Amino acid sequence: MVKKLHLLCACSLAAAMCFSSAYADNVIRVGTEATYAPFEFMDDEAKPQGYDIDIITAIGEAMGYEVQVQNMPFDGLIPALMTSQIDAVIAAMTITPERAQRVDFSEPYYKSGLSVLIREADKDKYTSLESLKGQPLCAQIGTTGAMKADELSGGNAKSFNTEPEAFMELKAGGCEGVVNDRPVNLYYLATAASEGVVEMSEMITAEDYGIAVAKGNTEMKQVIDEGLKKIRENGTFAKIHQKWFSVAE
Ligand code: ARG
What separation in Å is there between the alpha carbon of 193 and the centre of ligand 1? Predict the structure, then answer.
C-alpha cells in the first residue's frame, strides 16, 4: 500500500513538472512578437497591447489564469515553446501544416491573409503579382509573408526582424514590395508613416490564426480552447474585435 502511494506521488509529480507553470501558480506564460499592430505592439510604457493581448488575457480571466506576456523575436517563438520557456504563443500566427508538425494549435480565432504593399509611384508598373516576379521583396523573418516573398521574387527576398523595418526598407527603395498580413498592412496604411505607400488589389492567401502550445500539451490546449469558447459565448470576444477593428467579426 505504501509503495503504491509513493508511485502515485512520483507519477503526478512528473506530470506536474512537465507543464509546471500551468498548474503551479495559475500563470500562463505567453510569448509574442510585439511589433505587429494592431495584434501586438508595445505602448509608450513598454507594455504589450493589442487584439491578441486582449484575447489571451480574456481567455486567462475566463479560465482563472493570470497571463504573463513576454516579447521575443518571431522566429524564436516556436523554439521557446518547444523548450518550455513559455506555455503558449499568440502572435497573429498562421496555422500552417509545417508549424502543426512542431506545435499544436488552438481552434482558429482570426481570419487573415497576405497582401502586398508597394510604393505609390510604382502603381502603374506593378499591377499584378505576376509583374513582381523576380523583384526584390521584403518581409518579416520566419513569417508566411517571408515564404511568399521568396516564392514571388524567385529567391530575391529580404527578411527583417520586425515588420516596421520591412516597411521602412520599402520606403527607402531597398525593395519593391512588402508581403505581409493584410490587416497589419491596412493598419499601417492608416498611419502617417505610410505616406507614399499603397496596397496592391490582389489578395494572395486566406489564412487562419491560432494560439500555439507545445506539441502534446493537451491540458493547455484545452484551457485555451475552452476559454475561447467561453469568451465567444459571453460576448467578450465580439467586444475585443469591435474595439480593434471597429467592425463586428
Ligand atoms: N501570420 C503570419 C505568420 O504567421 C505573420 C505573423 C507575424 N506576427 C508577429 N507578431 N510579428 O507567419
Answer: 21
Q: Residue 124 pLDDT more than 90?
A: yes
Lowest mean pLDDT among 1-10, 116-125, 237-246: 1-10
| CA-based nearest residue to 213, from 197, 202, 225 | 225
Distance 64 CA to ligand 1 centre (A): 28
Nearest atom (ligand 1) to Cα of 91? 10
| Residue 171: per-residue pLDDT | 97
Which stretch of DSSP H or E encloses residue 105?
strand 103-105
Of 39, 53, 74, which is best to mutate to test ligand 1, by the most ligand atoms within 8 angstroms of its C-beta?
74
- Best residue among 90, 114, 140, 150 to mutate for probing ligand 1, ranked by most atoms within 8 Å of CB: 140
Quick one: cell of 231?
469568451
What DSSP string describes 31-95? EE--EETTTEEE-TTS-EESHHHHHHHHHHHHHT-EEEEEE--GGGHHHHHHTTS-SEE-SS-B-
Q: Looking at the chain, list the stretches that DSSP marks H as alpha helix, in order from N- to C-terminal side.
A: 2-18, 20-24, 51-63, 77-82, 97-102, 144-152, 163-172, 182-189, 218-233, 236-245
Average pLDDT of the residues in 7-25 = 46
For 91, counting Cβ atoms within 10 Å of its Cβ (0-12 exposed, 13-18 middle, 19+ buried), the class is buried
Instruction: Tell me the mean pLDDT in the region 143-163.
Output: 97
Which residue's C-alpha comes closest to atom 12 of ligand 1? 143
Looking at per-residue pLDDT, the higher value among 11 and 82 belongs to 82
Residues flanking ligand 1, CB < 6 Å:
33, 36, 40, 74, 91-94, 140, 143-145, 163, 181
